[in-house]
Amino acid sequence: MGDEEYKYQYGFSEEHPDEMYDFEKRTRKGNKTMAVLLDYLSGKGKDPTELRLLDIGCSTGFMTRLYGRYFGEVVGIDIDEGAVRYAKENNSGENIGYFVSDSMDTGFDNESFDVISCTHIYEHVPDSKRLVSEIYRLLKKGGACYFAAGNRLVPIEGHYRLPLLSVIPKPLAHLYLRILGRGTYYYESHLTYLGLKRLVSPFEICDYTLKVIEDPERYHAADMVRPGSIKQKIALTFLKVAYFISPTYIWVLKKGDG
C-alpha cells in the first residue's frame, strides 16, 4: 500500500467535535450497541459482568464509560491522543482503562478479550483487513465483536454529509472536500456489502440489521425509526428487497470455538 493511501486519521475528535464531545449523541449510540450486545450475550447464556470488553476507537470515552456499567472490565483504545486524554480525565472508572493504541496492532496478548466493540471504525483505519485480523486474534474462542459498518453505496456520506463522497475515487474525494472547505484529505475508505462480507469472512455473522428496524424500541433506535411509522415500513420493505444497499449493517461477529 502506497504512502498516499496509508495515512492515519489522528485528529478525528478535533475535526468532528460536535459529534465526539456530545454526551447525549454518544450515549444514544452506546445504548444501541449495548442493547444488541446484551441481547446476543443473553442468548448465549453469558453474563457481561464476567466478561472483558475492548472498545476499539473509544475516542472521548462516553460510550466506553457506558460499557463499564455492564461489563466486568473495559479497555478503550484510540490513536487520537487528545480524545484519549479527555476520556481518562472525564470518563474513567475503576474497571475502565484507556490507551493510545493502533487498532491494527494493539500489542495485547492473543485471546485477551471476550467481547470487542468496533462501531463504524473500519473505514477510518489505513488497512481494514489488518484491523479485522487483529480483532480475530484478540478475541477468545467463542468471543464476539459488535461490528457496525457503513456501506460505500450511499447517496449521502455519513461523516461529512456530502452527496456521493464515499462513492467517487479518492483523488476526487480529496478535491471535493478542499473545494467545499470541509477538509484537505478524505481518510475514510468504505466498502460495499460484498466487500464487507469478504472482510469479515473469518467470522460467523449474526445479523441484527433488520432486527433493529423491526423492533426499534428494544434496540434503542426509536429516535431513528419510530415504531409503526411509514418510515419503518418503507425501510423494512426496502431492505428485504435490496439489502445490499442498506446504509448501515449491524452485525455481531462470532469467533469459532475450534
TrEMBL record:
Sections of the chain in a coiled coil: none
Domain of life: Bacteria
InterPro entries from the UniProt entry: Methyltransf_11, SAM-dependent_MTases_sf
Biological-process GO terms, alphabetical: methylation
Transmembrane segments: 234-252
Gene3D superfamilies found in the cross-reference section: Vaccinia Virus protein VP39
Keyword Transport on entry: no
UniProt keyword Transmembrane present: yes
Name the UniProt record assigns to this protein: Class I SAM-dependent methyltransferase
Organism of origin: Candidatus Zymogenus saltonus
